[in-house]
Amino acid sequence: MTIGLIQGVHGVRGEVKVQPLTDDPKRFFDLKEVFVEDKNKKEHLYTIEGVRLHKGLVLIKFETIDSRDESQALRQAFIKITREEAVDLEEDEFFIADLIGIKVCDSSQKTIGTVVDVIQTTGTVNNIEIRLENGKIIFVPFRDVYFKEIDVANQMILSEIPEEFYAL
Predict the structure, then answer these.
(1) Tens digits of residue pLDDT in 89-98
(2) For labelling alongside 11, which of 35, 57, 139, 154 has CA 20 to 30 A away?
(3) pLDDT tens digits for 41-91?
(4) Is residue 90 part of a domain?
(5) Which of 19, 96, 99, 8 is nearest to 53 (CA)?
(6) First-to-final CA distance of the chain
(7) Are residue 26 and residue 59 in the same domain, yes or no?
(8) Residue 27 three-state SS
(9) Which of 85, 111, 130 represents a domain boundary (last residue)?
């Protein structure tokens, strides 16, 4: 489960600046280890030596990273945890990862496709990657205006996706 994006380095001792992709950045203080997913989608386990908050970002010092050059190599990598380490959810909440594989239906409940991925951004809106029934891939901003109801238990999303998304 992705909880952060390493945006850059901080200082010369190997700290990384992390954009939290979680509702509560303070949760990083409870973690002892995390997986760092590199550009090739390969995950590496790192032990956390220290965590602090700074200007809306999370600064993390990993045990084996001791220089600016070493931490620079982690730029644009995602920080991940196991599902067991995830926070407890309220009844009507879900994890982004839970959306992958869910069928997407139109307002008449006709299946139009399946969620393939959720593209997490550092901006305010993630994008949902949907494989349509005809095999075509479309990307739709993850907004209430397009996704009306998300039912993780029944593996279905009711949507109102405008035609222009299908033409892209």
Answers:
(1) 888 788 888 8
(2) 35
(3) 899 999 999 999 999 899 999 999 999 999 999 999 999 999 888 877 888
(4) no
(5) 19
(6) 29
(7) yes
(8) helix
(9) 85
Please report the pLDDT score of residue 43 as a whole number.
94
**Measuring CA to CA, how many Å separate 18 from each of 9, 127, 129, 165?**
9, 20, 24, 32
Q: Are residues 24 and 73 in the same domain?
A: yes
| Under 8 Å between Cβ of 4 and 19 | yes
Alpha helices in the chain (DSSP H): 68-72, 163-167
- pTM for the predicted model, two decimal places: 0.69
64: its two tokens: 């084996």
Task: Give me the CATH number covering residue 65.
Answer: 2.40.30.60
Beta strands in 55-92 (DSSP E): 57-62, 78-80
Structure tokens at 15: 């700290």
Give the pLDDT of residue 71: 95
Report in angstroms the alpha-carbon separations of 64 from 44, 45, 129, 145.
12, 11, 35, 45
139 with 85: CB under 8 angstroms?
no
User: In this structure, are residues 144 and 159 in contact, taking their beta carbons and an 8 Å threshold?
Assistant: no
